[in-house]
Amino acid sequence: MVNLRVRLDTKEQLDNFSLSGSSLHKTLSSLRLINILFGNRRQLSKAILKYCKQHSYQKTFRIVDLGCGGGDCLMYISKKLNKHGIDASFTGIDANPESISIATQKTLKTNNIKFLVQDILEENFTLPECDILVSSHFIYHFKDKELISFLEGLPHQNVKHVILSELYRSKMAYLLFKTVRYLLPITNMAKEDGLIAIRRAFSQQELETIIHKSGYTSYTISTKPFFRFTAEINIQ
């Protein structure tokens, strides 16, 4: 029986930063489909748009995406903000050079999106200055103490707001995905990694405790469909 009371400390196949070729391309396409089907990019862009409208006095926004993969979420968010007349620049960060190459090729005709090859979990990682820091199913890669340390350092890097769109760990989520994954047109890697991701994910209570330990009191965590939540932290 799988134990979902504690977080799993196991890497996924996609965490192999040397992964390349058709297996990577197909799996990134699978993740894009999952983001569309389960509404992740829609909820993320909705939260970003709301923040930008609440701070309309600001002429432009700098947005950084942690673990951007093939860049699909940033492209979607860029189009949404542009449709509402909001000026923004975007930086996607991922440790896999091939993923960044794929993302860069997709955005050759845009001048407001750039991508960086960096390992976010490295101790010497330096976050680019940004107004909004976003994570789409990435922060579970941090261990608890690592995430606390990362969040504690954000005020010193001029980050104003954090938006996290994440899975939460639950037995129901695990069993449901284990069943329906065979019906989804996604790669075997995405199917296997998906189960691991659910077991690695934070529960809402765990994330709330981490935010508190990081010294923040101004935040919200709201549950979304398909076993996800959106957490927003006011840094400045």
UniProtKB/TrEMBL annotation:
Keywords: Methyltransferase, Transferase
Family matches, as InterPro entries: Methyltranfer_dom, SAM-dependent_MTases_sf
Domain Methyltransferase: 60-208
GO molecular function: methyltransferase activity
SUPFAM superfamilies for this protein: S-adenosyl-L-methionine-dependent methyltransferases (SSF53335)
Stretches assigned to coiled coil: none
GO BP of this protein: methylation
UniProt name for this protein: Methyltransferase domain-containing protein
Organism per entry: Aquimarina algicola
Higher taxonomy: Bacteria, Pseudomonadati, Bacteroidota, Flavobacteriia, Flavobacteriales
